[in-house]
UniProtKB/TrEMBL annotation:
Keywords for the protein's UniProt record, in alphabetical order: ATP-binding, Ligase, Nucleotide-binding
Coiled-coil ranges (or none): none
Signal peptide region: none
Protein name: Gamma-glutamylputrescine synthetase PuuA
Taxonomy of the source species: Bacteria, Pseudomonadati, Pseudomonadota, Gammaproteobacteria, Legionellales
EC number: 6.3.1.11
Enzyme class: ligase
Single GO MF annotation: glutamine synthetase activity
């Protein structure tokens, strides 16, 4: 009998479905916002789709996270009539599906013309670029998320106000919290093993009801899959427990924001040794790692929209709340945007701390990796490292990050490096989608504005 990890080919995918005598299989893929979409597919349809792909209405590339249609997209829209686009199933992504006994999940990618704007395909192209440069990329993502004793109905009945966190007060790393709620923690750990996004560390973070999960390292494309699936099914698990999990970058002005940090390292494909580790150099940093960090640092302001993709993302990027505000780097410095972590051949890496929990893992990884590869190609040099508190120091104007999503989208559109790495189709499509997101926000009147201006102005 095959296990999901045995499935690498179309033939094996068909065999495991037959062995389990499944009448239907679940197939899913991720849109531009990192939202997982999918359907149950009959066995015959699934087998046909494995061989030939299947059709999916391309409106899913032309609407936002609330299913509102973009009015500024070129790839699809009313002007194209929202035709079907080709999707291919990826046999090697086969997984047992938690909560559905004996059921399987397969992931898919957009194909054909839609591949140019597909988030997973974009990451795959950047990983292939690394391969052509002689590198194997390893990555691991870690997420902070808040848990609430709420349901989708209750949060709406409360208009998302006065929500009850799972636990009160600030108790980071609390043994009390993770023991009292051990059943939930074990559900999370068990789910991560069943669905092949194993968790390396899981603990209570600082804040009411906040948990942090560090997903185990893997090759970059697989790491993107694991992160995207973790975010999706963590929300599923929470709701099945009459709770809710949010990965918003910042849900309350009173608490720290929620990060989605990315750890990255390169290994030489032929020699099998770290491309970042050089024990004769300061901090064990090889010239390759130095160039990689330089690319990440210098392109961070241009690529910010891919890492901080919502209006809410920018509420997190403020001084003193564990989120970077400029494109800085330091060694073991958690006040900088890039944290170099000296170690051994196995552990030498860089942590891209700019990432927020609300980002699409595929796009955040593509931005963090692509900018580093660009730095290696161009032999870029980083600005001097930051020592001490980055928030209290003056930085070069070139390192300032955009302060709004609109500004970030504009910088991405204007970026020659982004267009060379990601292609014009993706840059135009994604930047337009972020401009739409900002315009949608501007159409609304906040409670803050009403309280501040209604009577007195």
């Amino acid at each position: 009998m095959l296990t999901p990890k045995d499935v690498k080919t179309i033939e094996a995918a068909k065999k495991i479905v037959e062995e389990r005598n499944l009448t239907h299989v679940k197939v899913g893929l991720f849109d531009i916002d990192g939202v997982m979409l999918g359907k149950y597919m009959s066995r015959n349809k699934f087998f046909s789709a494995l061989d030939n792909g299947f059709s999916f209405c391309d409106v899913i590339l032309g609407w936002d996270s609330k299913n509102k249609l973009y009015d500024n997209g070129k790839y699809t829209g009313w002007h194209t009539g929202y035709p079907d686009t080709l999707v291919r199933i990826l046999p090697e992504t086969c997984r047992d599906l938690v909560f559905e006994e004996n059921q399987l999940l397969f992931m898919a990618e957009f194909a054909g013309e839609a591949e140019t704007v597909c988030p997973r395909a974009l990451l795959r192209r950047i990983v292939n670029k690394a391969d052509s440069m002689g590198f194997v990329v390893y990555a691991a993502l870690e997420y902070e998320f808040f848990m609430f004793d709420e349901t989708p109905d209750s949060v709406r009945s409360k208009s998302f106000r006065d929500l009850k966190p799972m636990t009160p007060d600030f108790f980071g790393y609390s043994m009390i919290r993770n023991t009292v709620h051990a059943d939930l923690y074990h559900q999370i750990l068990n789910m991560s093993e069943i669905m092949d996004f194993p968790i390396e560390g899981l603990h209570a973070e600082t804040g009411p009801g906040v948990i942090e999960a560090a997903i185990a390292v893997d090759k970059a494309t697989e790491a993107g899959d694991k992160a995207a699936l973790f975010k999706t099914f963590m929300k599923v698990l929470a709701q099945r427990n009459n709770m809710m999990a949010t990965f918003m970058a910042k849900w309350s002005p009173h608490y720290p924001g929620q990060s989605g940090h990315i750890h990255l390292s390169l290994r030489h494909k032929n020699e099998g040794i770290s491309a970042f580790y050089e024990p004769s150099m300061p901090y064990n940093m090889s010239p390759i790692q130095r160039h990689f960090i330089a690319g990440q640092q210098l392109l961070m302001p241009e690529f910010l929209a891919m890492v901080s993709p919502t209006v809410n993302s920018f509420s997190r990027l403020i001084p003193g709340f564990w989120a970077p505000t400029d494109a800085t780097w330091g060694v073991e410095n958690r006040t900088t945007a890039l944290r170099v972590i000296p170690g051994s051949d196995k552990s030498q890496r860089v942590e891209y701390r700019l990432g927020s929990a609300d980002s699409n893992p595929y796009l955040a990884l593509a931005a963090a990796l692509g900018s580093g590869l660009y730095g290696i190609e161009q032999k870029l040099e980083p600005y001097p490292e930051i020592k001490g508190n980055s928030y209290t120091q003056q930085h070069e104007a070139e390192l300032a990050l955009p302060r709004t999503l609109w500004e970030a989208a504009t910088r991405l559109k204007q970026s020659k490096a982004a267009r060379s790495l990601f292609g014009d189709s993706f840059v135009d499509h994604f930047a337009s989608s972020r401009e739409w997101e900002e315009r949608e926000f501007r159409r609304h009147i906040t409670d803050w504005e009403l309280d501040r201006y209604f009577e007195i102005i």
